[in-house]
């Protein structure tokens, strides 16, 4: 028994169940596959749920049916899919930090691919076209990091290896050992001098459609926009309009909705690169999420404060 009263935890796959049982034998773990309905007996005793690594989950839809639910632990950084699904009073924890390195890595890859025309070269290759041209570079560019959580901080570390000027924008203005972090209110004033804007913002009431037509219009000619946070942060119709104007370019790993509808104008937009929400879905995910979840379960069993509580 813990201060949260948690004794029984459901997990979405058998391998994870075995892993956690070996490392935290004090708790009882029940297998709850997303595509299956637990028995009535299991539903009545589950105190905590580890949700599947999926933005859309049947498990999430059933949370309200658990009479003793006290904690929900996700395997993702963002938790917008849980809005309205977690009963009042239930502790909600994210896996913030687990996906940071992989998502930041993809963001840097999207920047380089877009600037150097790697996507263009890949398309030319299918047509056996050899097209030499002078392309843009990351070197000597001004990069604004919109969002300075775990992903933004990892981006800062990775981009430090390049010859770039980094501007950081967080929810609120503050200072740290690296200097100033601008608040959101400074965004519009920074955009005209920014070459590359990288958003890793989560989906919150404050960030819905934050990247709208006025924001995109304020970006300098030739600027590049990257989104590895959440698709709902961007007004996609406004983004499509800017891309078709030829004024800016963009590369995104997230859209709203997902998958992007087949008839959406972004599919054929010029100067645009799209990846299907690959950010944290890498070979690093499994060992990192297992380590994180084992640590979290030990905290629960040991009556310690849980990590990443929202």
Automatic annotation (TrEMBL):
Gene3D superfamilies: NAD(P)-binding Rossmann-like Domain (3.40.50.720). InterPro entries: D-isomer_2-hydroxyacid_DH (IPR050223), D-isomer_2_OHA_DH_cat_dom (IPR006139), D-isomer_DH_CS (IPR029753), D-isomer_DH_NAD-bd (IPR006140), NAD(P)-bd_dom_sf (IPR036291). It comes from Gluconacetobacter azotocaptans. Keywords: NAD, Oxidoreductase. It holds the Pfam family 2-Hacid_dh. GO terms for molecular function: glyoxylate reductase (NADPH) activity; hydroxypyruvate reductase [NAD(P)H] activity; NAD binding. This is 2-hydroxyacid dehydrogenase. Residues 108-279 form the D-isomer specific 2-hydroxyacid dehydrogenase NAD-binding domain. Belongs to the D-isomer specific 2-hydroxyacid dehydrogenase family. One of its GO terms (cellular component) is cytosol. PANTHER family: 2-HYDROXYACID DEHYDROGENASE YGL185C-RELATED, 2-HYDROXYACID DEHYDROGENASE-RELATED. The keyword Methyltransferase does not apply. Residues 17-304 form the D-isomer specific 2-hydroxyacid dehydrogenase catalytic domain.
């Amino acid at each position: 028994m813990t201060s949260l009263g948690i004794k029984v935890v459901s997990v979405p796959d058998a391998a994870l169940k075995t892993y956690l049982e070996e490392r935290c034998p004090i708790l009882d773990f029940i297998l709850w596959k997303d595509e299956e309905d637990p028995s009535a007996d299991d539903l009545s005793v589950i105190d905590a749920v580890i949700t599947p690594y999926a933005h859309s989950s049947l498990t999430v839809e059933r949370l309200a049916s658990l009479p003793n639910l006290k904690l929900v632990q996700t395997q993702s950084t963002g938790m917008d899919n849980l809005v309205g699904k977690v009963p009042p009073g239930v502790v909600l924890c994210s896996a913030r930090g687990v996906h940071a390195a992989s998502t930041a890595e993809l963001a840097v890859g999207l920047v380089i691919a877009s600037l150097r025309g790697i996507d263009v070269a890949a398309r030319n290759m299918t047509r056996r076209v050899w097209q030499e041209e002078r392309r843009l570079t990351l070197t000597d560019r001004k990069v604004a990091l919109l969002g300075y959580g775990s992903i933004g901080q990892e981006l800062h570390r990775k981009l430090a290896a390049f010859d770039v000027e980094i501007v950081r924008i967080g929810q609120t203005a503050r200072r740290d050992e690296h200097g100033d972090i601008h608040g959101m209110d400074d965004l519009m004033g920074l955009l005209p001098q920014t070459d590359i804007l990288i958003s890793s913002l989560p989906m919150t009431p404050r960030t819905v459609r934050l990247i709208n037509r006025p924001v995109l219009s304020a970006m300098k000619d030739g600027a590049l926009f990257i989104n590895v946070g959440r698709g709902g942060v961007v007004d996609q119709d406004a983004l499509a309009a800017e891309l078709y104007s030829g004024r800016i370019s963009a590369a995104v790993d997230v859209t709203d909705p997902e998958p992007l509808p087949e008839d959406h104008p972004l599919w054929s937009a010029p100067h645009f690169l799209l990846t299907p929400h690959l950010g944290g879905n890498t070979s690093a995910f499994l060992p990192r999420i297992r380590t994180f979840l084992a640590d979290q379960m030990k905290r629960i069993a040991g009556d310690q404060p849980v990590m990443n509580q929202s």
